[in-house]
Specification:
Number of helices: 5
Strand order of the largest sheet: 3-4-6-5
Largest sheet: 4 strands, mixed
Strand content: 15-25%
Number of strands: 8
Radius of gyration: 16 Å
Helix content: 25-40%
Number of domains: 1
Length: 158
Amino acid sequence: MRRLARGRWSIGAQPNREQLAEQVAAPSPAYVSLQSALFRHRLIEQVPEVLYAVTLGRARRVRTRRVRCPCTGCRPPFSVGTRRLMTGPRWPTAEKALFDLLYLSPTRSRLFNSLPEMELPKSFRWAEVARWTKKIAGKSRRAFVERKLKSLKLAHAR
């Protein structure tokens, strides 16, 4: 038995870094996203210092011996759009990871206020990000994400 964080224990084999996101957010579902997922999809070059996760549960910051893992809370419609890779954690598509970053950028913590420098491939599906944006219930948040998406799309069209 290994101690992951206060009140969180792992039984069995040592979990890999990405599996910690699901384990520290339990019993709420969680998935690795934001800069961590953008790096995995090779859209950014900067290696994130922390493992970013999104959860349906309460937002919290967890620090283990191996990794810092801030778990950011989101609402149920935005918790889908992920897939499990083999026996590892859930990962979002590249488009969903970018949407998560845009959606969470105006939050009170201002943690995701500035976007990292990104290299988006020609195969990037802008329509999928726009589809997620249309699901935002709040008008001001939707307008904010649409503006950010439009400026990002224009910057990458050059």
